[in-house]
Amino acid sequence: MVAQIIFILITLAGVGLFSFNARKVIRNIKIGRPANRNDQPAKRFMTMLKVAFGQTKMAVRPIPFLLHLVVYLGFVIINLEVLEIMIDGIFGTHRVFAGLGGFYDFLIGSFEFLALGVWLACAIFLIRRNVLKLKRFSGVEMKSWPKSDANYILITEILLMSAFLLMNASDAKLQALKEGHYISAGAFPVSAYLQGLLPSSAASLIMTERVCWWFHIIGIFAFLNYLPYSKHFHILFAFPNTYFSNLEPKGEFTNMASVTNEVKAMLDPSFVPAETAPGKFGAKDVNDLSWINLMNAYTCTECGRCTSVCPANMTGKLLSPRKIMMDTRDRLEEVGKNIDKHGADHQDGKSLLDDYITREEIWACTSCNACTEACPINIDPLAIIVDLRRYAVMEESVAPGSINAMLGNVENNGAPWKYSPADRLNWAEQG
Amino acid sequence: MEFKVPTMAELMAMGEEPEILFWVGCAGSYDERAQKITRDICKILHHVGIKYAVLGTEESCTGDPAKRAGNEFLFQMQAMTNIEVLNGYNIKKIVTGCPHCFNTIKNEYPGLGGTYEVIHHTQLIQDLINEGKLKAEGGESFKGKKITFHDPCYLGRGNGVYEAPRKALEVLDAQLVEMKRCKSNGLCCGAGGAQMFKEPEKGAKDINIERIEEALETQPEVIAAGCPFCMTMLSDGVKLKDKDQEIKVLDIAEITARANGL
Ligand code: SF4
Ligand code: SF4
Description:
heterodimer; A: mainly alpha; 61% helix; 0% strand; elongated; B: 4-stranded parallel β-sheet; 4-stranded parallel β-sheet; 11 helices; globular; binds iron/sulfur cluster
């Protein structure tokens, strides 16, 4: 009875804390400007199914694809086991699904194989990061927290899987001893090999089984509450993020409606704009970005696939699209904390541009879209880069000198070079 | 050129309409190297007897470099002015010699009131080959030559056109080799996003050098391009590597024109 009450309290605390934090994240995302991504629901749904659920963009790199697939399937499927743990915890039952008989054996057996798979995959992931030191996982932005974050996640998953297997091993031993409520249920093809490591007395076995059981479930709640601070948030956000991803051709940039109004008014003095102009063109800080950009930032896995294909990054320039996403998230978190502490209108005198992302970074981008193509969850770092450029150029008129010269030429000569428009057809006279 | 390039104004004066407008673009109009490509596109159009016209002095920059540099005002000014001209001539179909013009007119003009069927010149060539109007006969033979194609970002990843330029090369009976990074995984030449008009940021090397090194790994006789900016970047790279004697950088239109003896 006491155990049940404690369990229920822990569950409520775990879920409550998570929804409290998740709500903050959603509030932060809503700081962004509106963007309409509600068109073509069927196509959006298919994109989500394919990219997030079906993991299609992961397949480009076969080794991480397979390893990730195991962890992903493990996460999805082993949740059935969590359901049983929840029911057992609340009602004080033990292996409540055992009545399923042979099917239960099959389930537990396959969970064990999956748990082993996840264990191994995470171990290999740890080796890739820390021993083989794959280039993709390094970079200026991958210091301190981002670096340890990944390791914490992998170690936690290994511990959770170990607890699950040890729990099963002791359970099986207790079943053989016909101890108490430990009825014969489940098949233990993997954990059977761990039985030798366990004590033989029933009391210590019960102890081990209970410790693992509690560790497993508390671990899951702790993990849930770790998500909002971690790159691991993608296990939830990948779904809405792909649903709302850009369905237009990658080459197409949005036409800023606010500018359209002003340009129309300039070209046609009789034109009366429908709405009043907004405060700012482009983005200086996170609240100038769209909520899509901000959701992207929370979704980023920091996998570095974008950065590894970025032509600017691979030739040694400062730009790293992954850093763009991480900076955006960091700044958004900072703004969110400011709101919590000082209210919605607080200004801390900092901004995304300059305090986080430098001019040198944004001007190095070739808008080649390699980053958006490579991102396994359809994140668009280029959209942020372009909005920062828009701010620099339209609000501040601060751009590299040669860019200003080019813009002047387009304006005056209708071409980015200083040639006379009258010479535009000269090519037809020669050759 | 042996024939006269018709302008829209001239056709209009004669009360005629072309099947297709050839949007030349700034590079195609002014850049010496790109002008050759422009003329070859005209030769192809002339050869197959498509009724076409250019805007000539009525054409202005699409606004692509302004938009990529962040100047949305200038972009929309350019776009709306161009759209007025295009709509004034009742243009329905456009072929461009530049993936940047192609992308901008196809994707970004409709939202501003300019909706046209837009194709890139490699798509036109693909169509002409499919229709049997272009054969790769009667000119320079590319048979067995090693050719590698560099995907322009704004044609490939930007708009998903990967097949058309390859189709134009397949008819040559040449030996096509792909670079390690090709198609959706292609590597930028370094010119897009208004980079063409500025010095690169400091780094270990220039992007076009990285790309040329990769192209050289395939030991090509010809590096094929489909964009005037890629053309500049790739040619510069080949020159810097001192390979401009052995390796030619040619646009798909030039290759097609040569193969057909135009
Ligand atoms: S679009 Fe910009 S940031 Fe993205 S890969 Fe290309 S150069 Fe890098
Ligand atoms: S933006 Fe996408 S590809 Fe880049 S690090 Fe984040 S998740 Fe990975």
